[in-house]
């Protein structure tokens, strides 16, 4: 079955960077995009960007341009989201979600990133 | 910030019907398909509807979706206690060149 398993919770200081992984299984990794979505506590969903593991092409939400980097390692069917220059309002749960023809048909369990001094 | 507008909350008795609206513009809903997601507390979102009105395998047929112009709707028939959750619409936005989500709607079963 299709599974997306994310790395664990992280605590970072303001100004630092965080890298969250999303390990996939149960499907051909290069046949689907990976999207990243975040959700602050008690807030709605916010789309961050997408990456095509086959071509390496990616796109980012305007709010995150220049601060987020999406990458993949096709040898281990894993996607990564790195967010730099962290601020307190980056504290959120970060989700990976499969995409391409159908956006969000499978999701990771989420990874809590806490930014605190 | 969310680009698609949803009512903050809806509530109804068990076995009744509720409808959730999602309002956008010509750059998103007006020109692209809408997906709907259900999010239970503390859980990842789950896809309920894609391509505006298609149910994924395994999703109850009590859920249905529709789209007209720059708005979309999700209907839940025969409301059940386990339907209590937050619901989000989403669509690709051609102007922003990315996905946009709705503001989210909390469904309460009375």
Tell me about this structure.
- The complex is a heterodimer of chains A (117) and B (110).
- By secondary structure, chain A is an all-beta fold.
- Chain A is built from no helices and ten strands.
- In chain A, the strands form two sheets. In chain A, strands 2-10-9-4-5-6 form a six-stranded mixed sheet, with no helix packed on it. Chain A has a four-stranded antiparallel sheet with strand order 1-3-8-7, with no helix packed on it.
- Chain A is globular, with a radius of gyration of 13 Å.
- The relative contact order of chain A is 0.32.
- With 110 residues, chain B is mainly beta.
- In chain B, strands 1, 3, 4, 7, 8 and 9 form a six-stranded mixed sheet that branches.
- In chain B, a hairpin with a 4-residue loop joins strand 7 (85-93) and strand 8.
- In chain B, 38% of the residues are buried.
- The mean pLDDT of chain B is 96.
- The A-B interface holds A 35, 37, 44-47, 49-50, 59-62, 95, 97, 102-110 and B 2, 35, 37, 39, 44-47, 50-51, 56, 88, 90, 92, 96-104.
Give a short overview.
The complex is a heterodimer of chains A (117) and B (110). Chain A is mostly beta strands and 117 residues long.
């Amino acid at each position: 079955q299709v599974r997306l398993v994310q790395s664990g919770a992280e605590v970072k200081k303001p100004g630092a960077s965080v890298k969250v992984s999303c390990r996939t299984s149960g499907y051909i990794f290069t046949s689907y995009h990976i999207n990243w979505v975040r959700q602050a506590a008690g807030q709605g969903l916010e789309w961050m960007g997408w990456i095509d593991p086959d071509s390496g092409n990616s796109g980012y939400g305007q709010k995150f341009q220049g601060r987020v980097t999406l990458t993949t390692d096709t040898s281990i069917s894993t996607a990564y989201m790195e967010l730099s220059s962290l601020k307190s309002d980056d504290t959120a749960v970060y989700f990976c979600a499969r995409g391409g023809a159908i956006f969000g048909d499978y999701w990771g369990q989420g990874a809590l990133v806490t930014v605190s001094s | 910030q969310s680009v698609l507008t949803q009512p903050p909350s809806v509530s109804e008795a068990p076995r009744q019907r509720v409808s959730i609206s999602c309002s956008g513009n010509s750059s998103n809903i007006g020109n692209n398909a809408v997906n709907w997601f259900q999010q239970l507390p503390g859980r990842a979102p789950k896809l309920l509807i894609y391509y505006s009105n298609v149910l994924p395998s395994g999703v109850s047929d009590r859920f249905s979706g529709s789209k007209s112009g720059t708005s979309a709707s999700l209907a839940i028939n025969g409301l059940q206690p386990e339907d209590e959750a937050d619901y989000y619409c989403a669509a690709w936005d051609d102007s922003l060149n990315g996905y946009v989500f709705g503001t989210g709607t909390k469904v309460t079963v009375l």
